[in-house]
């Protein structure tokens, strides 16, 4: 199975928004990522619109051929936007206004009733729903109960730990990926992945997709976006042998 790479272009918009105006353009970044081997484009439309804007989503849908994975909080506002655009996929993420980035996964277990409504509405519109969760059995079981076709494991703890803690977290991701597949759920992973830490995650055979953003956009400052995405693609291919 080919491991897909979703390139998250949020932080191209972060740089643009630092000065207002329209440069650098995240849609141009999506085009370059597509040429460099991305299989999909990921964008998080936040409530505060701190990076991606509604206009970016309009243009990504209209101008980019790759499937769009819309990351969204489970709110009526975001549901309405997703249903209006019908992206290929929607990844439901937890969102706190004051956080710098998505810190931790959804509590799919504790929020069953709230999430069930969104999983159902998005799924009925033929949008592939994914739940961004921590790699724990409890969260996978909750995703099964919710009938989500996809889960994305939050790799932040793996990325930000070292030594035995990292090894243990990697094992949790691998075990949960196997558990997800056993229950008919496609596992994805993302958050904090870099050239230095991507290979062990990419080598987990059940994982179907990685979503990577901040590192790729940061690296693009030094080597260009095309080279940055190509190198990530190479590492992922090597990990799969
Ligand atoms: N996947 C999800 C669901 C995310 O919310 C994010 C961004 O926080 C990513 C992947 C990409 O993470 P990063 O920008 O750290 O590569």
Outline the secondary-structure elements.
Elements: E1 4-8, H1 10-19, H2 26-35, E2 40-44, H3 54-63, E3 68-72, H4 76-85, E4 89-92, H5 112-124, E5 128-133, H6 137-146, E6 150-154, H7 156-159, H8 163-182, E7 186-190, H9 198-202, E8 209-212, H10 214-223, H11 225-239
Parallel strand pairs: 1-2, 1-8, 2-3, 3-4, 4-5, 5-6, 6-7, 7-8
Helix pairs in contact: 2-11, 10-11
Bound molecules: pyridoxine-5'-phosphate.
Please tell me what the overall shape is.
globular
Give the helix level as a range of percent: 40-55%
Return the structural class.
alpha/beta
**Radius of gyration over alpha carbons?**
17 Å
The pLDDT mean sits at 96
For the record, the CATH architecture stands as: Alpha-Beta Barrel
Bound molecules: pyridoxine-5'-phosphate
CATH superfamily: Aldolase class I
The CATH class is Alpha Beta
**What sequence of helices (H) and strands (E) makes up the elements?**
EHHEHEHEHEHEHHEHEHH
Enumerate the strands of the largest sheet in spatial order, edge to edge or round the barrel.
1-2-3-4-5-6-7-8
Number of domains: 1
* Number of β-strand runs: 8
Oligomeric composition of the shown chains:
single chain
Number of H- or I-type helical stretches: 11
Termini gap: 11 Å
Task: Give the structure's gist in a few sentences.
This protein is α/β, with parallel strands linked by helices and 241 residues long. It is built from eleven helices and eight strands.
